[in-house]
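Sync notes, pocket subgroup
Present: LS, DG
LS reminded everyone that the earlier model was apo-only. Rerun requested with fe (ii) ion included. Inputs:
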Amino acid sequence: MDARFTGFANVWTPVAMASALRVDRPLAAQVAGVRLALFRGRDGRPTALVDRCIHRGVALSLGSVKDGCLACPFHGWRYGADGAVVHVPWNPDAKLATLRARVVPARELAGQIWIHTSFDPTPPDEPQVDEWLTGAGVRIFGIAVDWNVHWTRAMENMLDSPHLPFVHASTIGRGFLGLSKGRMDIEIEDQPWGFRTRMRIDGTPRPGMLDFRWPNQMNLHISLPRRRLFLISTCVPIDETRTRMLFVGARDFLRAPVFDWFFNRANLRIAEQDRAIVESSQPPRTPDARAEKSVRTDAPLLRFRKLYFDRLAQTASE
Ligand code: FES
Ligand SMILES: [Fe+2]
């Protein structure tokens, strides 16, 4: 039986930092149960193949890349960027036209490698990001970390503001300490790509905005005087109990790559605080809203939960 993207079909998701996909070797990834071998073709564009050689089923991601072709580590069959086998060692008479791997649509955008969770050679749409990320003068950086939880719990955590002074008292929640006896209001504005939220505490607007971008991204707009810092958290389902978190950021100041390390480390410190809490969730996958008690400030998270159950939870690729 062929691999299927289960519970996460027909959507675009980033799967890796573009800098992690080199020209000279493949990169393994797993999305919603499907193992993938990513590599760059001769023109540098990314290709994603199901990570299973059509000859004897071994992992293509253990192979090597030469001249934009991916060579299987077992008998050296070579695959081109369109998944077609272009060379079978010892067999100059092999019928190449009948030999082809399964291809998953892949793109490079905003410093990340994206895939469409389908086998559709012409997906109905293209991946989309906030416009600012593709402009000139923006430095994109990021790291990947695996969490032991279903991606829906991780996604909800990213949309949850009331936890800031409790989980992040020593980092981003510091500014909220002592305020939680007051009233938090979260305004939700629907957008074609998801929804945008703004927060008020005791009637006073807080700076910044938090966006949910369908299906699995949180974009945090941090307001700084005359500068922009943008943090993107993507929750990529690996399987039922594991999630690859991509913590990506973009900035228009301190643009030298050497500063990436500092920003990544700060991001990782905050993420580790979340991870410790979120991995303890029971059940590990977000349940129906009626199974848990919720309050007014849970509205963004419940909005996501409804979209997920209505549009994604039951899907599977062909
Ligand atoms: S298993 Fe890949 S070439 Fe034989
Ligand atoms: Fe958090």
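DG: The mean pLDDT is 96.
LS: The chain has two domains: 12-127, 132-311.
Action: DG to write up.
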